[in-house]
Amino acid sequence: MSERRLGRGVAVVGAGMTKFGTFPGRATRDLFVDAFQEMRGSVDRGLDPADIEALYIGNYSSDLFEKQGHTAPIMADWVGLAPRPATRIEDACASSGVAFREGLIAVASGLYDIVLVGGIEKMSDLPTEQVTDTLATAGDAIYEIPAGFTFPGFYAAMATSYMARYGATPEAFMHVGIKNHDNGARNDKAQFGARISDIMASKRARAEAKGRPLPDWADEIDFLRDERANPTIAWPMRLFDCSPISDGAAALLLVAEDLVPSFSDRPLHIIGSGQASDVALHDRSDLTSIRAAKLAGDQAFAMAGLSPHDVDVAEVHDCFTIAEIIATEDLGFFPIGEGGKAVEDGRTALDGPQPVNTSGGLKSKGHPVGASGVGQVVEIWQQLRGEAGDRQVADARIGLTHNVGGTGQTCVVHIFERRL
Amino acid sequence: MEVREHNGTSFYSYLAEEKLMGSRCESCRALHVPPRPLCPACYGNEMSWEEMSGIGELIAFTTVHIGTNAMIAAGYDRNNPYCAGIVRLREGPAISGQIIGVDPSDPESIAVGTPLRATFLNRGDDSGNFLAFAPVD
Fold this sequence. Notes:
The structure holds 2 protein chains of 2 kinds.
Chain A: E1 10-17, H1 28-42, E2 54-58, H2 62-65, H3 71-78, E3 86-89, H4 95-108, E4 114-122, H5 128-136, H6 151-166, H7 170-184, H8 196-209, H9 220-224, E5 232-235, E6 237-238, E7 247-256, E8 268-277, H10 291-304, E9 313-315, H11 321-330, H12 339-344, H13 361-365, H14 369-384, E10 398-405, E11 410-417
Helix pairs in contact in A: 4-14, 7-11
Chain B: H1 8-16, E1 21-25, E2 31-32, E3 47-51, E4 55-64, H2 69-73, E5 82-89, E6 94-99, E7 115-122, E8 129-135
Parallel strand pairs in B: 6-8
Antiparallel strand pairs in B: 1-2, 1-3, 4-5, 4-7, 5-6, 7-8
């Protein structure tokens, strides 16, 4: 593979996001205003919005979620940036990861010096069954969805393939959920600010208050094996294996490296970028890995001149727990077939040697699909600047984001460096 | 002979005739299931229809408790889950289909590697046949 380089250096100098959750009565534009304002406040030396030259907005399906198409110019308008060019990018759940890459390419090309990258999604207006169908449009509507596949179903199918090949059990997946809920409990932007053990305690308290028999779960795994407490969505994926239905927005400011001193004392330099596409799930020779993720990761590591073990903190696309295990293998953090054991052994925990999804991941932080890719970068921004509070990875210098669209028909990977 | 375009409309019209059909590239002989009009291997655009044996092997599956609206309309729900899977055909390509003749309420009884045979499923409305697979007796 030929090694690609950017035309010039680009850095992130501002980052903000809403809390992810469900916000009745608030449209994507309202959420985006909040993310923009937080981003603006994060720019060390201040930002005059008039200096922003263009917007790149990731948004999966406002058309179906809130009957609103053509969202990019609305976002530009609502943050006072009309008539600047505003472009919406749709690559399913990787929409804003790809929007980030398009913003990066635009600045690296020299066309612009200062761009705003955003991600938006408002999913909670629709009832769950319509959300299921809307997400399913990211699959192949002619050949996959008529078979009955849903998005949990696709990843569940990958999980059965993974289990058959490597002898993994559903418990490995459960450990991903436990870890990500532990991390999310330390993140005030997370949709679920509760550990699995907290959820168990509140269910016990509710049973007690209602005079019902107390559940006798021995531990978190025992709770997660309980079909009543953790119902199957698409076997072997249960409720706590699935990211939630979420609303949210996130925003980043990207500038050419030579402008960094006028914006930031502690920028994130973007040192690696990769993206790839792939065929429908059934057309792949291997269902236990996402080829586009491997390719995107290889491109990003080659551009950065780094290897996987140089990464101090990674945000990977855990739309379902199996997806995190596969991601950690595709990115080279662990050998193939060993990602499940790695999480069970605590190697991806906050205090482990390879922390993954310190934000709580999509599982606990929430997954407003078109906002998730930019939301991942917000976490890396906080980690590399030492602003991650209770979930800070000590002395984090290199961060990585891995954002997947659909079942891996799109994947985009970025690597960031703190130089000071 | 009737000429059918190598596309999804034709694929489903063949399913209505209880035939699982693929496209054979006339240039490089690559076989494509589902059918397609342009060969991604050699860019050949002369395709001929070829009927599949329908025999294959389950390579991945799930039992779906929260289904699509179409499957809910067909009568499936949390108490009546269905199985969806990916089947590698004896001829090489793999394709998605509903898996019938298994017990979706007991997913651990369903195994990757199970030999299957194609069947043509009408879900009780006028939307035609869907591709499904059932265990080979």
